[in-house]
Amino acid sequence: MIGAALVALAVGVALPVVGHGAHGLVGVLLRWVAVMLLCGFALGRRSLTPWIFVAMVAGAEIGFDAPGFAMQLRVVSDIFLRLIKTIVAPLILATLITGIAGHGDMKSVGRMAWKSLVYFEVVTTLALVIGLVAIHVTKAGVGLSLPVAAGVAALPSAPAQHWQDFVLHVFPENLIKSIYEGQILQVSVFAVFFGIALAMLPEAKRAPVLRLTESVSEVMFGFTNIVMYLAPVAVGAALAYTVGQMGAGVLVNLGKLVLTYYGALVALALLVLWPVMLLFRIPVLGFCKAVAEPASLAFATSVSEAALPRAMEVMEAFGVPRKVVSFVIPAGYSFNMDGAAVYLTLASMFVVQAAGMHLSMGEEIGMVLMLMLASKGVSGMPRASLMVLMAAAASLRLPSEPIFVMLGIDAVMDMGRTTMNVVGNCLASAVVARWEGEFGAELPSAVVVEGMAE
């Protein structure tokens, strides 16, 4: 059935290209037949992943066939994202506090911290270099015609980011404010300090608070399982809106840049992530199957936070202890944004090429070092990397006009960028667990097992 659906989809896409009129109508019918066949395939599966895939295909088709209607579907995906945002902060607080205070061994927490940071820095640096090499190979920005200056005025300016600003931004001044603004790193820092303070208390005083945080974490995982039932509908609505808003023309104009970026992501997966899995003896097929659902959520919504709760669940079910999952994945959302790292060097050099500028080897190395810091401040919200790019351009004294050109295709690139961020952080949790000798040493909780079975 899946083979017939793919054939029908391929023929349905090809017919309008080689013909017009009746060919276009037949193409539409074939594409919807493919959607129906995919629905039949998904009916025989208990997992949500096939339904998310079906929703992605159906959403793209709605966006192409009925863009006006598709533009009205954004409210569906917005509802889903709002529900997800209500989960993230309580989930991180509860799981991180429980993981630190319940562990009882501060030396072990310290080991997880430095191992995570070492892994984050190595992989992020390699991602930055891959983005730089990719854009040098394709030269996607060379010969680009810049828009008129009047259009550039609409681009918001961003101040240069200094290391002092980043360090200060790490620490919360108000927990409620940090939760409201979705500052994952600040919430995580509060949870770390709270967990350490809780671990230092006598058992009699620590136990009630620890039981509360354990209960809250279980409730939030249960909340996630409920919200995930909306995921296929939300994913389809998100893609329908994106395709209906952008259309296909913009992909033709800057298709070379998009292909360069996705080629760089493939290179990152094959040259960095795959060898890492082999080096740390992470089951490759099992890992790919585990991350399929959070990765598809990230791709369709372009919001890392949308996939965070499910990512934590699937990695716990995969064999990563909760204390590792609750520490590494939230920290990785600020320190290990692999997809964003590839994008930042690639996009910065695209700006340089489009402006007809030339950077020396020393200047490019300086740019990579600066972006190494800037990439640590990327949040999990859509198009957040674009704001970091503008800040980096201000620091490097690059023109803003080429960045304005990239606005039209940033949504397409953001899908791959967010997906790689999520996959990279899931792998980081498995690597740290294996490095600590605890991979597969702890059974997942009953609520997580129940969620994976749905």
From TrEMBL:
<dbReference type="GO" id="GO:0006835">
    <property type="term" value="P:dicarboxylic acid transport"/>
</dbReference>
<feature type="transmembrane region" description="Helical">
    <location>
        <begin position="340"/>
        <end position="360"/>
    </location>
</feature>
<dbReference type="InterPro" id="IPR036458">
    <property type="entry name" value="Na:dicarbo_symporter_sf"/>
</dbReference>
<keyword id="KW-1133">Transmembrane helix</keyword>
<protein>
    <submittedName>
        <fullName>Proton glutamate symport protein</fullName>
    </submittedName>
</protein>
<dbReference type="InterPro" id="IPR001991">
    <property type="entry name" value="Na-dicarboxylate_symporter"/>
</dbReference>
<dbReference type="GO" id="GO:0015293">
    <property type="term" value="F:symporter activity"/>
</dbReference>
<feature type="transmembrane region" description="Helical">
    <location>
        <begin position="79"/>
        <end position="104"/>
    </location>
</feature>
<feature type="transmembrane region" description="Helical">
    <location>
        <begin position="261"/>
        <end position="280"/>
    </location>
</feature>
<feature type="transmembrane region" description="Helical">
    <location>
        <begin position="184"/>
        <end position="201"/>
    </location>
</feature>
<feature type="transmembrane region" description="Helical">
    <location>
        <begin position="51"/>
        <end position="73"/>
    </location>
</feature>
<keyword id="KW-0813">Transport</keyword>
<keyword id="KW-1003">Cell membrane</keyword>
<dbReference type="Pfam" id="PF00375">
    <property type="entry name" value="SDF"/>
</dbReference>
<feature type="transmembrane region" description="Helical">
    <location>
        <begin position="222"/>
        <end position="241"/>
    </location>
</feature>
<keyword id="KW-0472">Membrane</keyword>
<feature type="transmembrane region" description="Helical">
    <location>
        <begin position="116"/>
        <end position="137"/>
    </location>
</feature>
<dbReference type="GO" id="GO:0005886">
    <property type="term" value="C:plasma membrane"/>
</dbReference>
<keyword id="KW-0812">Transmembrane</keyword>
